[in-house]
Design a protein that fits this description.
Layout lengths: L5 E4 L9 H15 L8 H7 L5 H11 L6 H24 L9 H11 L2 E5 L4 H12 L9 E3 L12 H10 L6 E5 L2 H9 L4 E4 L14 E3 L22 H9 L1
Parallel strand pairs: 1-2, 1-4, 2-3, 4-5, 5-6
Helix pairs in contact: 1-4, 3-4, 4-6
This protein binds xylulose-1,5-bisphosphate and magnesium ion (MG).
């Protein structure tokens, strides 16, 4: 296969390290603001990340509590907490405290100049994507993406392939002519389930997680070191479209 026609970006963990110091912190501040005793430390949050979606993550946590409230009360509590958490998350990222990961901007710029379409395929809330990307890419951020599919747009979150299938349909691109960039096992499974090849840039929470079915896995887009399969001859300091082409050719 030649150059991919579209690049589909995951958000949390891939575009930026949002989870540990933004989503997790915002959940804890939301608990505090609502007078609730829970605090999620870095380790516990890593376990909770196995559940995609903030509301779903809260429900999963409530269900494990020794004195878990009945299901209807859990739903009410999650519906109350989730918007508070997202408002606080928006404030954290709007303050510029979560930069894009190194190498992301360079690859986005290369896509733009090469005419490779880009899309967002995420299970996070649309407001969270807008808060992060308007801060990091500017107020016209959304014009850079031909499709933006978020948590609200799907009935089933990752690892279900729905978010990728919707993004492909909006792009009008066959799965085999697209390429996803992901950081997690569930995100990789979602893209693979839609038939999209996946390049994994490992994030802090999935630094050592077993990830099945990726075309290539490496530490980040900023470096040509530490990738499997190895990068070919250098075209610059980071990962470029030519690397994707080479990995796709096998
Ligand atoms: C990762 C997630 C998200 C965020 C929280 O999404 O699981 O659920 O942790 O999102 P992705 P919300 O890697 O697909 O971008 O609280 O907005 O649901
Ligand atoms: Mg992710």
């Amino acid at each position: 296969m030649s150059r991919p026609r579209a690049l589909l970006w995951d958000v949390d963990g891939t575009l930026a390290e949002t989870e540990r110091d933004a989503h997790r912190v915002a959940f804890n501040l939301a608990f505090e603001a609502c007078g609730l005793p829970w605090r999620w430390d870095v380790g516990l949050y890593g376990q909770l990340l196995r559940v995609a979606g903030g509301r779903e993550r809260l429900l999963h946590f409530f269900a494990q509590l020794p004195d878990a409230p009945p299901p209807a009360e859990r739903e009410v509590l999650a519906a109350r907490l989730h918007p508070v958490k997202n408002r606080i998350y928006g404030e954290i990222v709007a303050a510029g405290r979560v930069p894009l990961r190194d190498g992301v901007l360079a690859l986005m710029q290369e896509c733009r100049s090469a005419g490779v379409a880009m899309a967002i395929a995420t299970t996070t809330s649309r407001a969270n994507v807008a808060a992060l990307l308007s801060t990091q890419l500017g107020p016209a951020w959304s014009t850079g993406f031909a499709a933006i599919v978020c948590g609200e747009d799907v009935a089933r979150k990752k690892p279900d392939p729905e978010v990728y299938l919707r993004a492909l349909a909006q792009l009008g691109v066959e799965p085999g002519r697209a390429l996803a960039i992901e950081d997690s096992p569930d995100g990789t499974a979602a893209a693979r389930g839609a038939g999209v090849p996946v390049v994994v840039t490992r994030s802090v929470y999935f630094a050592a997680a077993p990830i099945e079915g990726a075309l290539a896995i490496g530490p980040g887009l900023h470096t040509r070191e530490g990738w499997a399969p190895a990068c070919g001859p250098a075209q610059g300091p980071g990962i470029r479209l030519a690397d994707f082409e080479r990995w796709l050719r096998g």
